Amino acid sequence: MSDEKAVVLLSGGIDSSTTLVLAKSEGFEPCAISFDYNQRHKIELNFAKRFVKVIGVKEHLIVKFDLRRIGGSSLTSDMEVPKREEVKLDEIPMTYVPARNTIFLSFALAWAEVINASSIFIGANVIDYSGYPDCRPEYLNAFEHMANLATKASVEGKIRFKIIAPLINMKKSEIIKKGVEIGLDYSLTWSCYDPQIFEEEDVTKPNKIRKILKPCKKCDSCLLRAKGFIEAGIKDPLPDYIFYESFDY
Amino acid sequence: MSDEKAVVLLSGGIDSSTTLVLAKSEGFEPCAISFDYNQRHKIELNFAKRFVKVIGVKEHLIVKFDLRRIGGSSLTSDMEVPKREEVKLDEIPMTYVPARNTIFLSFALAWAEVINASSIFIGANVIDYSGYPDCRPEYLNAFEHMANLATKASVEGKIRFKIIAPLINMKKSEIIKKGVEIGLDYSLTWSCYDPQIFEEEDVTKPNKIRKILKPCKKCDSCLLRAKGFIEAGIKDPLPDYIFYESFDY
Predict the structure, then answer these.
(1) How many whole angstroms separate alpha carbon A21 and alpha carbon A186?
(2) Domain span at residue A35?
(3) pTM of the model
(4) Closest CA to B174 of B221, B105, B210, B224
(5) ∠ CA A40-A46-A47, rounded to 5°
(6) Which residues of A170-182 are buried (b: 16+ CB within 10 A; e: fewer)?
(7) Most A-contacting residue of B105, B130, B151 (CB-CB within 10 A), to test interface
(8) CB atoms A146 and B145 under 8 Å
(9) Chain A residues in contact with B61 (beta carbon < 8 A)
(10) What stretches of chain A show up as alpha helix (H) in DSSP?
């Protein structure tokens, strides 16, 4: 592996996890950045934490702020996450979070400048998320242009920042096939926007209660995941029934 | 006043406070956004809170995150704030914070989308801060271009975001004169990067200790403020000796 660090946005889902492993396979030392923005599906951060441990990522920065104070999305407010039988992403969904990728990339840019990383990897994808404005190439190009005017390192000519979105034109099934090909274990990833957490008696230890985590299977993110695995002809290794404490990092 | 809301970045210093009052004088309803980024001079937030109360700003959002986790600046690390006898800002100073305005403007953009504000005001200034890359017009234009590709409201044609920097070509003395002209009381603003806080016995209430706040008078920000008031021919109304508790919001 080269010594060149790259900042990789890591949510804990399929796309960002695949992106991280791709960056690593291209010889970068991936430095993961995740965001605790008080999202409904904060559980994804536990998956991200486990993922970086398993993959052996040396640096993982979790930046915390509260987007519920701003709202405007079913992921950061009390609005309900839409549930459906089939994926429908031709319009911008309720799960769109205002300026989320811009906020995420801004922190990634700050960190990249400090650790001297010119490449910022993001798992943005224009096929599955055609409705999300901040997943399109024209947006990412505009961010890159702005980034190179924004920092000391770039205006002094020490770094030329590149926003790299290796999955931008891939379907979910292609992403999954690519990930499996390079050895990624997708049971380490989480997609559901509306995780169900409940308690049950631990039959192995009477009188002890344990927490169970289940994906809802009806939100857009669950549906896209299921569709991706079906189209890829691969069984999703994520169990339907997860002992919460087993990965409470 | 019109009903049109505008988001105004408010640090609590001279430039952003003047910008807010200018936005108000132009008929906008200013919605202030401030940032607790674990800056060394967090005291500025108390000034910002008091300022919005005095001015009568209805909405004030304070977004909290920790830029010390990222570092790279004497304002967000244990590096010392440079102290001098004279302002010297021909190179990018140690007090430059990586990608700070990009992070600030990203949150402002998210909030602007949610509250349906097309104008985002920032007190950026290219004269005094010629060394700061993210205070230059080319940077602000690039951010504006990116912003209009980034959000649901802009790609659907509902909002065209404008980044407005009314002070961009003004000297500090011109800013101060302008502010005084429109009735701004600069004793409500704070500039020092390295506030000195000490305790002393309260002579009016024996055995009671009170906290005193003083600007350092030697950091670039103090020096620029002093130079601005001298050149404007106006006495700085900020006292040298402030009872901390009197405005502990």
Answers:
(1) 12
(2) 5-247
(3) 0.95
(4) B224
(5) 100
(6) bbbbebbbbbeee
(7) B151
(8) yes
(9) 69-70
(10) 14-25, 43-55, 100-115, 137-150, 152-155, 172-181, 220-232
Q: Is B216 inside any structural domain? A: no
Residues of A whose CB is below 8 A from B107: 65, 70, 99, 103
Q: How many Å apart are CA B141 and CA B131, to the nearest integer?
A: 17
pLDDT, tens digit only, all 249 positions of chain A: 567 999 999 999 999 999 999 999 999 999 999 999 999 999 999 999 999 999 999 999 999 999 999 999 999 988 888 887 777 666 788 889 999 999 999 999 999 999 999 999 999 998 877 678 999 999 999 999 999 999 999 999 999 999 999 999 999 999 999 999 999 999 999 999 999 988 888 888 878 888 899 999 999 999 999 999 999 999 999 998 888 776 655
**Residue B86 located in a structural domain:** yes
CATH code at position B137: 3.40.50.620
Q: Looking at the domain assignment, is residue B195 inside a domain? A: no
Q: Give the B-side interface with A, CB within 8 Å.
A: 61, 63-67, 69-72, 92, 96-103, 105-107, 109-111, 113-114, 133-134, 136, 138-139, 142-143, 145-147, 149-152, 154-156
Three-state secondary structure readout of A120-156: EECCCCCCCCCCCHHHCHHHHHHHHHHHHHHCHHHHC
- Where do we find the tokens 């549930």? A83
The beta-strand segments (E) located in B136-217 are: 162-164, 196-201, 209-214
How many whole angstroms from its chain centre is CA B12? 5
Pairing outcome for strands B209-214 and B242-243 = antiparallel
Asked whether residue B21 is domain-assigned, the answer is yes
* Farthest CA pair distance, chain B: 65
Model ipTM value: 0.94
Number of inter-chain CB pairs under 8 A, A vs B: 145
Whether B116 and A72 have beta carbons less than 8 Å apart is answered as no
Q: Which two tokens stand for residue B211?
A: 């906290």
Order across the sheet with A162-164: list the strands.
A59-64, A29-36, A5-9, A119-121, A162-164
Q: What is d(CA A245, CA A242) in angstroms, rounded to the nearest whole number?
A: 9
Overall domain count for chain A:
1
Q: Do B99 and A107 touch (CB under 8 A)?
A: yes
Task: Flag if A70 and B150 touch (Cβ within 8 Å).
Answer: no
From A101, A136, A152, residue closest to B133, measured CB to CB: A152
Residues in A closer than 8 angstroms to B111, CB to CB, are 70, 98
Smallest Cα–Cα separation from B92: which of B138, B129, B48?
A: B129
**A154: chain B residues, CB-CB within 8 Å:** 133
